[in-house]
Amino acid sequence: MNVKRPWLHEVDAATALFVRRHAVHTDEFEQKTEHLSSSSDGTLWKVDRYEFDRVYDQALDDVYRTVRRQVADIFSFHSGDIQIDEGFTDATMLRYLVLHPFTRDVYVDVAPSGVVETVYVWMHPIEVCQQRDQITRVTLDVSNIVEETELHKLLREQLQFPSHYGMNWDAFWDVITDEKGLPDIVELYGWTEFEQRLPVAANTLAKCFLDYANEPDLKPCQIIYHQIEMLILPRQALKEGEANRLIFRHLAGATFPLHVERKTSVRLPKRHRFSLERIEEESVLSGIVRNHEEIAPWLTLSIDDQRQDVVTFSHETDWLLSYYREGLTLQGENIESVESIDTADYVTFFHHVTRGAYPIELTFCFGGTIAPSEKVYRLTLHDKAWEKLIEETLLPQLEIPKAKRFWQSFSSTTSQQSLETFLGECHPHIFGNFVLAHDADDVYHFLDHVNGSIKRF
Asked: Which of 179, 211, 223, 281 shows its CA 20 to 30 Å from the CA of 236?
């Protein structure tokens, strides 16, 4: 089996021998640790940290720090028969080891079958580990920043920059790339409001953090953006009962009591036969929800076409969700924008989706592209071959017509189209189109023109 992946690089035999000889086999880090025979080809594979998303786990960190270099620079553990494939990048343990500030390099020992037998972690010298033994975490509240000068003052104070800090972005880069570097964790609160208020400054700061992360010789730092994102899910995206389930899931971490409000609009009959005006009456019913059991009675919407209900839940500072006949709108920090709509397409979308657990339920909607009204198609993805699923299952159902010349009849027969045609003519940027993915880990990805990005929630 060819185990080469973008995040694996073959190591020469001398390095492989050195790593195995100096590895410490201990069960303090991983209970399943055991000494296994080396790969038949005598080589190791080095893990490329830049192919991994940053991850932070307090429990893993506590354990890792307790076993930080005790008698050698290298320790090893058995990985529990993790299969080497592209989905392996989602293995929390490996991602954490690769990006930990104590880690210099990570190697994997792979059997011919493609199973990871042993993971070797090469740590920084003991002096470096001791200096980094205490997690440093800095919180930056940028929600009330209205000028770039205020931002630099906040950065100077909270990140403990020297008094001669120049209060500009060149000076900021010089300071964070010195020997001290950034803290282990930097949390930014109020980022959504800050981006809207000072987009240039926000973009520059984020780019500095990104460039910092791409510098191999700098101490790793996890940047956490606490953003309040909004997500609009149309009715046809959801299966029966799924809206209620998403509401309960969204409110699971909310602080009770919550304020709830049901606004009802009723369209009255015409005053007389030839009247064009139809008067609407509105009524508002408010209440307090003190626990999860009190949520359900508010989620029943009227089925009368002349009556429209909008149910809104909110906490002390802002609203959390709105539920109505046409769909569901959610807002909160548990919604993440993972890609801008300017660069997002189906390839990018499935790059994120297929990193989840299978089976993955897919819902495609095409409104105004191939039909006069929105039509929904539901498919199930069992592996990474999403192109094959579209070609073999979705396209035969769509029967996408080719572009016709003006003299051709709209009733002429059309042939089945290719994946290339689908990607071009059924793009999610088109009004009414979207695709929703829901994996076995209960993670959703949503792509449509309304939200302006690929959302993960």
From this structure: 281
Question: Does the global pTM surpass 0.70?
Answer: no
Alpha-carbon gap, residue 151 to 206, rounded angstroms: 13
pLDDT in tens, 109-120: 877 777 777 888
Mean pLDDT (the chain, rounded)? 79
* Cα three-residue angle 277-283-284, rounded to 5 degrees: 145
What is the Cα–Cα distance from 273 to 380, expressed in whole angstroms? 51
Looking up tokens 């050195």 gives: 18
Contact of 230 with 337, CB cutoff 8 Å: no
Residue 372 structure tokens: 């006069």
List strands edge to edge, sheet with 115-123: 8-10, 45-47, 103-110, 115-123, 74-83, 23-25
**With contact defined as beta carbons under 8 Å apart, do 426 and 400 qualify?**
yes
Cα–Cα distance between 349 and 360 in angstroms, integer? 13
- The answer to whether 299 touches 237, Cβ cutoff 8 Å, is no
Residue from 358, 300, 286 nearest 90 by CA? 358
- The helix/strand/coil state of 96 is helix
430 Cβ contact partners less than 8 Å away, ≥ 6 residues apart = 368, 369, 449
